[in-house]
Every structure is written in C-alpha cells, then in structure tokens.
Specification:
Elements lengths: L11 E10 L9 E8 L11 E7 L8 E7 L5 E2 L5 E8 L2 E3 L6 E3 L1 H7 L6 E8 L12 E7 L4 H14 L6 E7 L24 E7 L11 H5 L3 H9 L3 E7 L2 H14 L1 H13 L3 E5 L1
Parallel strand pairs: 10-11, 10-13, 11-12, 13-14
Antiparallel strand pairs: 1-2, 1-9, 2-6, 3-4, 3-9, 5-6, 7-8
Helix pairs in contact: 5-6
C-alpha cells in the first residue's frame, strides 16, 4: 500500500502534551517522544496501529498538506477528559538530493520535533494493526527492528508483560543501529526495555555497526552468530510469529542474512510459508 492510498479526508485535531528527547545531546540522530491528546470522543487506538500526521503547507510543489505515517509507540491511554492519549516516536531527518547535492530538511520530522506542549497537530487514521498479540500465551515473538522501527515493539512488549500477564512463549527483540547512541530506549536517558530483563521469557539482542563512525551496514551477522541455533529453532517453530519494522531496506538485509543460514531457495520457501500462515508481518517505510 502506497502513502497516497491512505485516507487524509478524515482528520482529527490533536494537541501536544509533551515532547521529550530520547537520545543524548551528542548523539548523531535526534529522536523525540511526542505525546498527543486527540480531541475526538469517538476515536480509539490500539497497540500496533499507525497514525498519519498532516503538516500544513503550502509545500514545495504546491500541496496544501504533507502526509507521513508514524507507529503508536506505547499502550494508548485516556486523559482526564476521556479522550485518547497516544505516543509516537520521531527521528529528526534531512536528506541530500542525489542530483543537486543540496540538503533538505525532512518536512514532517522537523515539524513534529519542533512542536511544543499545547501546539496543535492534525492526525489521520488510525490505520492497520499489523502486530497483534497472539491469543496463545505460549507463542514465541521474534521482533526485528531498525532505527525508529523499534517504536511499535515498545508498546507490544509493554502490553504483553503489563496487561496480558503470564506470558510463557519466548520474546526476542533483534534491534539494529549504527551506534550505541542510536539504540533508542536502551541508552542512559531512556532504558524502557530494561524493566523486562527480569522476565525469563524476554531478551534483547543488539546489532551495531562494526565501525559506527563509518557508513557501514548494520552487523546483523555478528549479532546473531552466537545465536544461530536459537534463531533457526524459532523460525522452525510453527508457534513463532516474526514481526519486522523499520526502513524498507531492512527487508533485503534480512533476506540476505537468512539466505546465508538456510540457503536462498530454502529461505524463500520458508518465508513464503510464514507469510501465508500470517506469522511474518512487516511494517516498513
């Protein structure tokens, strides 16, 4: 589904409750956690859904709105007025035009990272719920995230251990980053996942670039080389659900990684079966 396929005619007014930086001041990337109150009484949100943000224009090509999608990054709540309160995570972005070499600021990310408490935000959605909690509490969850792709898993893991209770299946989070400072929720300022480390079923596996100051790819192979048997066993288990989130390039990186373990033809067949069974779900942007 393309971004242009999403409905932007149905809109909801929201207001910024808080905007907190998650990364250290000397980190290469700035990442903000933004909490929003939604004014509409009839709208509700679920873990794993995404919302759209409409940035008012006019923009470069005359569009009145700039539309981008963000994952709900925490278990949705209700404020004192009975309205929905949601959390999104935004990485401040810019990009370089491949033809001119000119650098441009990302429209939506800079708009949101500059929002302050009380500022209005126009939302669309919510759309989809790709990462559902399996009804069977003995199911295994293998979550793979890159960059801000970790955001939807934050809400999912919180729901499993704080709302579902007594989870018996394995919960594994494989998370890729270029540097330790990019490990959202795992740095000194915001270590969200550490509260689940005492759960016997939970474990986070970090994958870093071998040379974080270089433009090297994420070292997925190094991260899993000591865990190959466990990961292969998870992928072989018919009770395992694989959830993937992050930038679109992560799909080809994972295909290369798992093809090297299973063989290209065997991996292609295995992945097709996981997708057909509804046990391989991707949320890519």
């Amino acid at each position: 589904m393309r971004l242009t396929d999403y409905d932007i005619d149905t809109r909801y007014a929201a207001k910024v409750v808080s905007n907190e930086g998650l990364t250290d001041t000397d980190a290469e990337d700035e990442v903000c956690e933004i909490v929003l109150d939604v004014a509409d009484d009839g709208i509700s949100y679920k873990v794993g859904q995404i919302v759209g943000v409409l940035v008012p224009g006019p923009h470069e090509f005359g569009q009145p709105w700039h539309h981008r999608l963000y994952s709900i990054a925490d278990v949705p709540a209700v404020n004192e007025h009975g309205h929905s309160r949601i959390t999104i995570v935004v990485r401040r972005c810019d990009y370089v035009d491949e033809y001119s070499g000119e650098r441009f600021r990302g429209v939506s990310s800079n708009y949101l990272c500059d929002r302050r408490p009380g500022d209005p935000v126009t939302l669309t959605g919510p759309f989809g719920q790709p990462f559902s909690v399996p009804a069977n509490r003995s199911a295994n969850l293998f979550m793979i995230g890159l960059g801000t792709g970790i955001a939807p898993f934050r809400g999912l893991v919180k729901r499993i251990y704080e709302h579902e209770k007594n989870w018996q299946g394995k919960v594994r989070l494989l998370y890729g980053a270029r540097s330790g400072l990019e490990l959202l929720y795992m740095n000194d300022r915001r270590d969200d996942f550490s509260k689940y480390y005492d759960e016997e079923t939970f474990e986070a596996i970090k994958a870093l670039s071998p040379r974080p100051n270089w433009a090297d790819p994420i070292a997925w192979d190094y991260a899993i080389e000591d865990r190959v048997e466990e990961i292969v066993a998870l992928l072989d288990d018919p009770n395992t659900y694989v959830y993937v989130a992050g930038v679109r390039q992560i799909a080809s990186m994972l295909d290369q990684l798992f093809s090297s373990q299973f063989g290209p033809l065997a991996w292609d067949k295995r992945k097709q079966q996981l997708v057909a069974d509804g046990r391989w779900v991707e949320l890519l942007y």
